[in-house]
Amino acid sequence: MLAVRKARRKLRMGTICSPNPSGTKTASEVCNADWMASLPPHLHNLPLSNLAIPGSHDSFSYWVDEKSPVGPDQTQAIKRLARISLVKKLMKKWSVTQNLTFREQLEAGIRYFDLRVSSKPGDADQEIYFIHGLFGIKVWDGLMEIDSFLTQHPQEIIFLDFNHFYAMDETHHKCLVLRIQEAFGNKLCPACSVESLTLQTLWEKNHQVLIFYHCPFYKQYPFLWPGKKIPAPWANTTSVRKLILFLETTLSERAPRGSFHVSQAILTPRVKTIARGLVGGLKNTLVHRNLPAILDWVKTQKPGAMGVNIITSDFVDLVDFAATVIKLNDLLQEDTALAKC
User: Fold this and answer.
1) Confidence category of residue 9, pLDDT binned at 50, 70, 90
2) How far apart are CA 313 and CA 322, in angstroms?
């Protein structure tokens, strides 16, 4: 009977979102759209901080605009160089860290999104854009895409981590927060005790969205969580060996209570890395050949209060990243402890 239940769960969590005419199944086509709803009952009352949750790094960067100005997150030297059209084309190769849209990432099982935002200098309105070197889509468009998915999948919970803000004054922040309210409404989860947040308590209140806001502005709104509640230590290395050592060290130092934890399983290019692989870009120079080794580390992990929680990656579709992280939850033993918000 247990084998039958496991088989049914795999069917629910591994359906194909979009069929491939060749009959084969790529990582981007595996659908984990309802994986949280499909978790076994004994995990419904565990704190979300104890679950293994897949996330993406620079989640919005599947599209950047070569024709827009270089973003305010770049140095003056880069801005001057970018006046040459070829420079922007090369920048795009190093700014893009994902292939999948928000919707496609959600269908693949991604539930944590790393977000960097900016106003666009010279714009008369208060529009806010995603940014990573070059400007991406409007934040409003991304939020609406995410909300559409959540409406169709009412038991899925997401983390939106607004952790970098550029060229934004108080008016821009108010505009952004208003857009967040308009997009998600009653789906927004007010900040409360991390340990009290379980799938069951969120389902009971129809909450689906946790917004983390790394700016003092969060104090003005009850649904904005402070950035300190979701630390994301950054290894800043091109070495897989050093990255894994860093991930292990920061996990061992993880606070047992009071916050979520993001393990950034990503490599960061140096200037010389970019110079050597200028035309190849981030994916071909650094990510493609190293991602399998990083995934091997993920497979050895266990979630829990002192284990992994949220794990992020670049190009989440290149390997079976989301499904690998989700599967770690099978290692969790039954825990019926339940705290109320």
Assistant:
1) very low
2) 9
Q: Is the pLDDT of residue 21 over 90?
A: no
Backbone angles phi, psi at 138, to 5 degrees: -65, 140
Within 8 A by CB and 6+ apart from 246, the residues are 233, 235, 237
| Single pTM value for the model | 0.89
Domains and CATH numbers, the chain: 38-334 (3.20.20.190)
List Cβ neighbours of 322 (8 Å cut-off, separation of 6 or more). Answer: 30, 32, 54, 108, 109, 110, 316
Q: What is the C-alpha separation between 129 and 122, in angstroms, rounded?
A: 13
Catalytic, out of 42, 44, 57, 173: 57
At 119, the pLDDT band (50, 70, 90 cuts) reads very high
Instruction: Decide if 132 is catalytic.
Output: yes
User: How far, in Å, CA of 147 to CA of 142, rounded?
Assistant: 9
Cβ of 294: how many Cβ atoms within 10 Å? 21
Provide the phi-psi class of 236: left if phi over 0, else alpha when psi is between -120 and 50, else beta.
left
Contact yes or no for 14/324 (Cβ under 8 A): no
Q: What is the mean pLDDT of the chain?
A: 88
Active-site residue flag, 44:
no
